[in-house]
Amino acid sequence: MENPLLLFPQLNISASKDKAYYKKTVIKEEPHKASKAGAKQKRNRLSLLLQKPEFHEGDHLGKAGSLTKAASVSPEEAVKWGESFDKLLSEKAGLDAFTKFLKSEFSEENIEFWIACEDYKKSRSAHELLPKAKTIYETFIQKDAPKEINIDFHTKNDISQKISEPTLSCFDAAQSSIYSLMAKDSFPRFLRSDVYRELLQ
Fold first, then answer.
1. Tens digits of per-residue pLDDT, 49-82?
2. How far lies 61's CA from each of 8, 119, 169, in Å?
3. Domain contains 154
4. What is the total count of domains within the chain?
5. Which of 47, 56, 71, 199 is least enclosed by beta carbons within 10 angstroms?
C-alpha cells in the first residue's frame, strides 16, 4: 500500500517539527542485523523521502503553528462558526480548531476521513481514483484499519464490493454518515469545549 500521507498530505494532521520525518534520522548500523551496505541504502531512501515536498508542504493542518493561527482568529469569526457546522468546516482556522478538539477526544479519524473524501472527489482522472480509493479503504474502512471509522455493515460491505473499480461517489454514503455523526454529536460538544471558548475571548 502507498503511504497515505503521500496521496493525502492533508491527513498529516498532527505533524509537527518534532516528528521523526522532519529530522534526518541517523540509522545506527548493527552488524548482526544488517550489512553496512544495507544501512547505507536505508539512509539514502530516508534522505529521498525527506526531500519530497509532500513531507513539508503547507497542507490542511500539517504545518507547525497552524493551531496558533486558529487561536488568533477574531471572536467575531469564531461566533460565526457556531452558527453552522458547514461554516466551521469551510474555513481552515475552523477546521484546525475542530480537529484539535477531536484529537482531544481521540476521534480525529472522523475528520481525517471526511477530508480524504473531499480530496478524493476532486480527482480528475480514473488513473487517480484507484490508488486514492485503496488508500482510503485500507486506512479507514476495512476491518481493523489503523483509523477505522464507525459505519454500518451495509455501507462498509457496499464499499468493499466497489473498491476494485471505484467511482467518484463510492464513499458518499460513508462520508455522509460520518458528517452527520460529527454534526449531531461532536459539533455541539465542540461549541461547549475550552478550545472553542478560548477563541471567543
1. 344 333 333 344 333 333 444 447 888 999 999 9
2. 12, 14, 25
3. yes
4. 1
5. 47
